[in-house]
Amino acid sequence: PFGELSLAFVDDAEIQILNRDYRGQDKPTNVLSFPALAPLADRTFLGDIVLAYDTIKAEAEKAGLPMEDHISHLVIHGFLHLNGYDHEMDIDAKNMQDLEIAALARLDISNPYAMREIL
């Protein structure tokens, strides 16, 4: 199976507007996902992933992560949301984290949650 999605990098002001309008959270966030309402006729359009460049850069710097690794993580996170995963309940959050860690490992990117477990 294959699918298509769109990625957009926006500034913090734009993601704050989207976060407010679609999630009721009037603050910037690092990534938002918007699943497609219906598939296109000849291919599967999964939806849109919107990434806040400034927030992601600040998070990567604070955590000492390569920017590319953090972006990869958030794209995978957004992709999982486009495919119906969420992290509303602890068990679902753990499931998403496990899938993210496995996908990142295939890209030779270390577990982004490991440092949080140490702190």
TrEMBL record:
One of the Pfam families matching this protein, by short name: YbeY
CC cofactor: Zn(2+)
Keywords, ordered alphabetically: Endonuclease, Hydrolase, Metal-binding, Nuclease, Zinc
Domain of life per record: Bacteria
Protein family: Belongs to the endoribonuclease YbeY family.
Alphabetical list of NCBIfam families matching this protein: rRNA maturation RNase YbeY (TIGR00043)
Listed name of the protein: rRNA maturation RNase YbeY
Species for this entry: Hellea balneolensis
Name of the encoding gene: ybeY
